[in-house]
Amino acid sequence: MMKKGYLTVYLSLSLGIILSLILALTEWARINAMRMQIECTADTAATSVLAEYHRQLLEQYELFYVDTSYGDAAPAYSNTEAHLRDYMEYNFSLKGLDTIRNYRDMLKLSVGKVALLSVSVATDENGIGIKRQAVLYEKDRIGLSLADEIMRNLQEITEYETESGRLQEQRKEIEEELNELIDQAQENMPSETQTVETENGLEEIEVKPQITRDNPADIVNATRGFSVLKLVVKDMDKLSRQKITPSNYVTGRTLHTGTGKQEGVDYPQGLIDNILFHEYILDKCSRYTDVLDKSLLKYQTEYIIGGKDNDEENLKSIVYRLLLIREAANAIYLLSDSAKMAEIETVSSILSLVCMVPEIEPLVRYSILFAWAYVESVQDVRNLLDKKRVPLMKNESTWNTKLFHMTEYQKYLADGDSEGEGMSYEDYLRVFLCMTDETKVTMRLADVMEMDIRRTAGNENFRLDGCIESFEFIAYINSGYGYDFNIQRNYSYIFHD
User: Fold this and answer.
1) φ and ψ at residue 466, rounded to 5 degrees
2) pLDDT tens readout for residues 9-21
3) Residues whose CB falls within 8 Å of the CB of residue 432, separated by 6 or more in sequence, listed in order
4) Which residues contact 235 (CB under 8 A, 6 or more apart)?
5) Is the distance from CB of 30 to CB of 478 less than 8 angstroms?
6) In this structure, are residues 385 and 425 in contact, taking their beta carbons and an 8 Å threshold?
7) What pLDDT, in 10s, does the model give residues 64-80?
8) CA distances, 92 to each of 38, 75, 218, 479 (Å)
9) pTM of the entire structure?
10) What is the rounded distance in angstroms from the CA atom of residue 213 to the CA atom of residue 216?
């Protein structure tokens, strides 16, 4: 008897379709698993590279950067590409799972080529990335509380520095006119007969008596030609003479460049951000009143402002500016103090009578005024370098020097009051930083960073233009099952306000 087999035929046909569907779904799942593993592996590799931030740069300067030299002689992006590839390869290998019985890799992924498409280097666009991180750090550390005070000091000191130029020109004109009048008076003096002894016996000759010049301002003005540091530094033997070779650092060599600013990132701009950046410099860098053992140049802040290749010249440039500013402020105060002006007028009147040239009295008066203002400014700068405070505008109680000490004023320089009111040396540096070109400030800070980092073990060849804070890369992935993939990602240290 024959039986019908349509169920067997139907089942056979159905199983073929079902099996094809199952296999297709399995392969689809495999492909998606590959894609998911590739994305996870790329994320892991990129964050692992970012985790290789330079430890000394973070420890000393609170900056996150990856040094693409990895301690070798020279930075190279190929080093970072190799690190990305190694991290991805390690995660694809699933090491440890191969010890499991009957384990089989269903993905068989491996890395082909990894290439960096773009990088943001620390020194790109005059170090804008360094400045961004520094400003964000200072916002967290101190906020904006100092901004108003610094801006007020900046305005006042800028005015005094401008005034100092005018006063110096006026002082020189007064000295020239005074000397000219005395020379003319000397020529017009009547001759006197004097008896002198010669080889032929006593002879009478005609001579003109010399006009006595006892102006104390002449003695003070003669010291203006001295080294300014000898006038204001108490112990010259302790002065740093450290010198650098500029071509070894950022501002003196040709730099590696990246692709510049990151898209979608807010970068510092405006005076407030500049002030915060300058606070970062004062927080991290040394200066004459606060020398750090770690530093190569001992007066780092002065270098950032002055840009000279040695500590002594950088300090000298700051001291010279301080003297000019303080002299202008002190001269303005003297003009407003009737008691001190009366002292000056008394001395100038006596000197003009002694010289027998009464018309020079106004010139002598102002020459003494400028000289006294300079003597007081020497005392002021000496106090500033000794970590004392000096009022921007003096009054009777804060004035230090005496008119009758002018001819030997260096003997009477005294220590100031450390608890006094006014501006400190650091306050003046804050203002000078604001008055310095911001590009120079940032790039000279980069010089200082390189100097310091190179003094640490294993970082002798450290270069900031080899340090990156963001990168975009592409990785080409192969599968043992015949599939090829690529993934492109952008990663960075992103900090927000």
Assistant:
1) -105, 10
2) 777 777 878 888 8
3) 305, 318, 321
4) none
5) no
6) yes
7) 999 999 988 788 999 99
8) 8, 28, 84, 10
9) 0.84
10) 9
- Burial-class residue 465 by CB neighbours within 10 Å (0-12, 13-18, 19+): buried
Confidence of residue 349 (pLDDT cuts 50, 70, 90): confident
SS3 (DSSP) at 106: coil
Mean pLDDT of 190-198: 61
The string of DSSP letters for 26-81 reads: HHHHHHHHHHHHHHHHHHHHHHHHHTTB-HHHHHHH----EETTTTSSS--HHHHH
What tens digit of pLDDT does each residue of 414-460 get?
A: 776 656 788 999 999 999 999 999 999 999 999 999 999 999 998 99
> What letter represents residue 338's amino acid?
S
User: Tokens 């010289």 correspond to what residue?
Assistant: 355
Separation CA 351–CA 96 (nearest Å): 99
3-state secondary structure 245-269: CHHHCHHHCCCCCCCCCCCCCCCCC
Per-residue model confidence as pLDDT tens digits over 276-309: 999 999 999 999 999 998 899 999 999 999 999 9
CB 353 within 8 A of CB 343: no
Provide φ and ψ at 227, rounded to 5°.
-65, 125
Q: pLDDT tens digit string along 357-387?
A: 777 788 888 889 999 999 999 999 999 999 9
Q: How far apart are CA 467 and CA 464, in angstroms?
A: 5
- Distances, alpha carbon 207 to alpha carbons 8, 179, 198, in Å: 149, 21, 16
Give the model's pLDDT for residue 201.
65
Rounded to whole angstroms, the Cα distance separating 315 from 322 reads: 11
Phi, psi (rounded to 5 degrees) for 400: -105, -35
Q: DSSP string spanning 418-467?
A: TT-SSB-HHHHHHHHHHTS-HHHHHHHHHHHHHHHHTTSTT-TT--GGGE
For the stretch 136-152, what's the b/e string if a residue is b when 16 or more beta carbons lie within 10 angstroms of its beta carbon?
A: bbbbeeeeeebbeebee
Q: Give the model's pLDDT for residue 330.
A: 93
Distance (Å, whole) CA 473 – CA 460? 29
Cβ burial of 334 (10 Å; 0-12, 13-18, 19+) is buried
Measured distance between the N- and C-terminal CA atoms of the chain, rounded to whole angstroms: 89
